[in-house]
Design goal:
By secondary structure, the protein is α/β, with parallel strands linked by helices. The chain is built from six helices and eight strands.
């Protein structure tokens, strides 16, 4: 069962949906091309909630109004922070999770000192498509929290040699590779169901290790 509510901040508001219950919260942010109601996001929210956690998704402002072009970085982060504050008030521990752009926004919040127990990054967009020289890695120098990266080996936004060099080598990063997967939930032998199953299985196991203090 899911509950819909409104997340508000000075100058804006968006819809959020919470599913599940438990002392551990997971804030799950969507990517640039979809909103929280996309089948892949709903499936992932339900799967993580099924592990005994309180999972909240939310729309960024542009998704809320039905636009396709993401908001400016500052507005995305303001919305993300407001959603995180809303969930944090209800749980004992909280993880910032997100697919593609949503995960990236979570890393910026963590680098800025937002209190979270760890980051779960699905299909992290290491660089724009076709522009591997524009790496999105500067913020990781400011993050000492545990991080889980679940990455497709054929992701056009994360060339594998660069991923291995700049992400897999981070001392606080744990990596799960999805062989043949691209940036989206379909293709390379994967679909929404199989990718969600892998995401959920690896995420729940990692959260358990981090929460019990046994994560490497």
């Amino acid at each position: 069962m899911s509950t819909e509510e409104t997340v508000t901040w000075d100058g804006g508001e968006v819809t959020a949906v919470t599913e599940g219950s438990g002392p551990v919260g997971i804030l799950l942010a969507h990517g640039a091309g979809v909103g929280q109601d996309h089948p892949s996001m709903k499936a992932l929210r339900a799967g993580l909630a099924g592990g005994g956690h309180t999972v909240m998704t939310f729309n960024y402002p542009y998704a809320e109004r039905g636009a396709k072009r993401p908001d400016r970085l500052e507005r995305l982060l303001t919305c993300h922070r407001a959603a995180a504050d809303t969930l944090a008030d209800r749980v004992g521990r909280m993880f910032l999770a997100g697919r593609s752009m949503g995960g990236r926004m979570g890393t910026y919040l963590a680098a800025d000192g937002y209190p979270t127990d760890g980051l779960i990054l699905y299909a992290y967009p290491l660089h724009p498509a076709g522009r591997p020289e524009k790496l999105r890695t500067d913020q990781f120098a400011q993050i000492s929290l545990p991080m889980l990266f679940l990455q497709g080996t054929k992701d056009a936004l994360s060339r594998m040699d660069l991923f291995e060099l700049h992400i897999a080598s981070l001392p606080n990063a744990e990596v799960g590779l999805l062989e043949g997967a691209g940036h989206g939930p379909r293709g390379g032998g994967w679909n929404v169901e199989t990718m969600t199953e892998r995401y959920v299985t690896l995420s729940l196991a990692w959260i358990e290790r981090v929460s019990s203090g046994t994560s490497g």
